[in-house]
Design brief:
The chain is mostly helical and 572 residues long. Helices cover 66% and strands 1% of the residues.
């Protein structure tokens, strides 16, 4: 019996595992966990208690003869596969302290400083780890005792060697492909090949490459459905609306595989969000927050950053019609930065996760867009934005759109001018970077779409609907050029939805219905689009379409606030 879920489903496309083989694999995995749990508490790392965390099962034999070092390495590898990078580095350093000549412990710590999906890499920190193992590449490789381990080490040397990041990612991938060709049945080699494929894409989805990585992860998941990395990478490969159903089995079990990893709890929501399963998205991110708080308290901290989970939770609440829950979450986040006097975001940061202030502004902007409450007290909030462009762009966009909605063309134009200046600064900043990250260009594409949306809204406020619709259609074309991303829509106000709203205001109800239907193909079961579709379809004389949209909206809003549910009575 599987101790995580007695009804654990097979992965998509997997053949049922023979009972005898399954029992032997389960027993082997149990022994690995027991072996890892028996690690000595000598030189306890910062991640105290990690040896008691349930993180899944894997088998990565190494050349060390120190039992406790192998156990720490195994824990580190589980955490690495779960993107719990800080704790993983602690475990690998623990393994090094127990066996200073343990080559793979240095490899593991170095690997914690590259985050392929997020296109992040701390080259200096990784090179410092390698230098602790040996003064230069040849000396380090001479200390690696087996061919398999040398294959891993040669790959990490290339990852942090000479050249641009793109060149080093490509060299790392080439060496992992060679090692995977030599060891086709080695699960860990195959999974690190999948990770290298993601790394070469630098956070920008290429369907063919992502499908290749997905196929690798799925094969391992079929053989070892308790491997956290297999489930994790399978999800990352298909977490877009077109392919998300392929990751549903992995999403259903990852949280059970690694109940003590906050990122594992959150990660399941990548699939649930792409499929519009809002209750599951909310539950996953609530669980991530609970695990993060528990781990933080064990360290003596009040809380622990759990990345973009709070933003995803806010988005899920809004899709569920739980506006009060979303408002409370947003207020708590804002009060936290005000109470702790959190400094503004530093210049150059584009990822909201790098700053609490930028993260709160991102949540605030999405709250205003999703609720459509452009005149409420929350929409009027002010922030200490600092020099970073991300929060400034989001704030200027909301202010311009607020004014346009109020038909205040002068105020909307003033903020549009500010947005255009900021976008110009963004373009210049990226041009000056010695090596611009590929996703930075995606972010610039987002800014271009949102500027076109502001121009459309302002033009409508000026009483020129035909020109406004043309500008909105241009924003739709620009948004279509952006590669698929995971999570809530990258553009706060999806362009096709905005076009539909403007078409409704222009009395083009059939065209608006088509726009909302097309938006729902890109953002499945999105509640604002469903609500607007029901309105447009009635106005267009399509009662059946309106009824279907309303039925799905009722399912989304089963746990909605009473005030929200009352709108169903007034909806068509």
């Amino acid at each position: 019996m599987n101790r995580y879920d007695m009804r654990l489903p097979a992965a998509a496309g997997c053949e049922p595992m023979p009972v005898a083989r399954w029992m032997m694999q389960a027993l082997a995995g149990l022994l690995i966990l027991v072996f890892a749990t028996a690690a000595s508490s000598h030189n306890e790392p910062e991640s105290a208690g990690a040896q008691h965390r349930v993180l899944g099962e894997l088998n990565f034999p190494t050349s060390t003869h120190v039992v406790d070092a192998q156990a720490a390495f195994t824990r580190g590898l589980l955490l690495l596969h779960l993107f719990e990078y800080r704790d993983a580095a602690d475990e690998f350093r623990q393994a090094q302290s127990l066996d200073p000549g343990f080559a793979m412990a240095y490899w593991g710590e170095a690997m914690t400083y590259t985050h392929p999906i997020w296109d992040e890499q701390d080259v200096d920190a990784a090179r410092a780890v390698l230098l602790r193992f040996g003064p230069e590449r040849a000396a380090r490789l001479a200390r690696v005792p087996t061919a398999r381990e040398r294959g891993f080490f040669e790959a990490v040397e290339a990852l942090y060697g000479e050249g641009t990041k793109a060149q080093r990612d490509a060299a790392h991938l080439a060496l992992m492909e060679r090692l995977a060709g030599d060891l086709p049945d080695d699960e860990e080699v195959q999974l690190f090949l999948a990770l290298a494929l993601f790394g070469k894409q630098a956070g920008v989805r290429d369907v063919a490459t992502y499908m290749q990585a997905t196929a690798i992860a799925e094969r391992v998941f079929c053989r070892n459905p308790q491997h956290p990395g297999a489930a994790h990478y399978l999800i990352h490969g298909v977490d877009d609306p077109t392919h998300a159903t392929l990751g549903l089995d992995a999403a259903r079990v990852l949280a059970k595989i690694a109940p003590d990893a906050p990122h594992a709890q959150h990660m399941t929501s990548h699939i649930f969000l792409a499929l519009g399963r809002w209750d599951d998205v909310a539950a996953a991110n609530e669980a991530a927050g609970a695990v993060a708080r528990r781990l933080g308290e064990a360290r003596g901290a009040k809380d622990r950053n759990w990345g973009h989970g709070k933003f995803w939770l806010l988005y899920a609440y809004l899709q569920q019609g739980r506006i009060e829950a979303a408002r409370s979450l947003l207020l708590a986040a804002r009060n936290e930065i005000m109470r702790n006097n959190v400094p503004p975001t530093p210049r150059g940061a584009l990822d909201p996760d790098t700053s609490p202030v930028a993260s709160v502004v991102q949540m605030w902007a999405r709250y205003v867009v999703e609720t459509g409450d452009w005149t409420g007290d929350i929409a009027a909030w002010k922030f200490k934005l600092g020099d970073a462009l991300d929060p400034q762009l989001n704030y200027a966009w909301v202010q311009s759109f607020r004014a346009a909605r109020a038909n205040d063309a002068h105020e909307a134009g003033k903020w549009l001018d500010r947005y255009q200046v900021l976008r110009g600064e963004l373009r210049a900043m990226l041009a000056e970077k010695p090596e611009t990250a590929p996703f930075d260009y995606v972010y610039l594409q987002r800014a271009d779409v949102m500027e076109s949306e502001l121009q459309a809204a302002l033009t409508m406020a000026m009483g020129r609907p035909e020109q406004a619709l043309s500008l909105a259609a241009g924003a739709v074309r620009l948004e279509a050029q952006i590669p698929d991303t995971f999570g809530p829509p990258l553009v706060d106000y999806p362009a096709r939805e905005l076009l539909g709203d403007l078409q409704m205001r222009a009395g083009q109800f059939a065209e608006a219905q088509a726009s909302f239907q097309q938006q729902l193909q890109a953002t499945r079961l999105r509640s604002p689009a469903l609500f607007k579709l029901s309105q447009a379809a009635v106005s267009a004389g399509q009662a059946n379409v309106a009824a279907q949209a309303r039925k799905q909206l009722e399912m989304n809003w089963q746990g909605a606030d009473q005030a929200v549910r009352q709108t169903l009575g007034g909806a068509p």
